[in-house]
Amino acid sequence: MTALLEQLVHIPSDSIHIEGMLELPENAQGIVLFAHGSGSSRHSPRNNYVARILREAGIGTLLMDLLTQQEDMNYETRFDIPLLTHRLLDATRWIGHEPVTQNLPAGYFGASTGAAAALQAAAQSPHNIAAVVSRGGRPDLAGAAALGKVRAPTLLLVGGFDDVVIELNQSAYDLLNCQKVFTIIPGATHLFEEPGTLEQVAHQAAAWFKKYLTPKI
Fold it and tell me: Given a cut of 60, is residue 170 above it in pLDDT?
């Protein structure tokens, strides 16, 4: 897929700027914003792999750091879901005003705590988010109230050996009132490091976004 745009961006959010990499394939069908998990960054090899598969499927990506380096050193800040959600919503508003992305339907891909932020943001912005995918996420941290308000079709992906996270995802799944699928990837641990497991995540995510990121009317 030919790249139309590859640009380092700085998105204003209160007193800081969110640094991210915006990449759009030619004739992009939509754009997916990545919300990384605690202790991770936009340079995460796993999320970058997923992002590449999405772009090969014709979907743009925005990989970004929702926390500054200093903030990410604080364990409590990593789990500050309202802060992560606030930053993600600021990034969502930003792409809604940028000429190259404003007409593209948007989705969220969240990992770990980023999944909770993605679902809280989707609940607060029901008309702007077309789909959500969680990889080994903590959707339970979004809270019951937010989960019940999510309208975007949501795919939860968890490794088959990630026992505790499976239970937490099941609890969150039961609270969702949207189109939803909960898929367990056999033989995978939390980080999907086993051969072939991350590929399954990436291709299921791409299929989900291809299905639900439809042109804005």
Answer: yes
Structural domain total, the chain = 1
**Predicted model pTM:** 0.95
pLDDT at 213 over 90: yes
pLDDT digits (tens, 9 = 90+) for 29-39: 999 999 987 66
Proportion of the chain above pLDDT 90, given as a percent: 84
- Residue span of the structural domain in which 100 resides: 3-212
Residue 187's contacts (CB-CB under 8 Å, 6 or more residues apart) are 159, 160, 161, 194, 197
| Integer Cα distance of 62 and 83 in angstroms | 19
Show the CA angle centred on residue 63, arms to residues 58 and 66, nearest 5°.
150
3-state secondary structure of 184: strand
- Check which CATH number belongs to the domain holding 125 and give it: 3.40.50.1820
Burial 48-74 (b: 16+ CB within 10 A, else e): eebbebbbebbbbbbbbbbbeeebbee
pLDDT at 77 > cutoff 90: no
Query: For residue 97, how many other CB atoms are within 10 A of its CB?
Result: 8
Given this model, what pLDDT does residue 33 score? 98
Assess if residue 217 is contained within a domain: no
Give Dmax (Cα) for the chain: 44
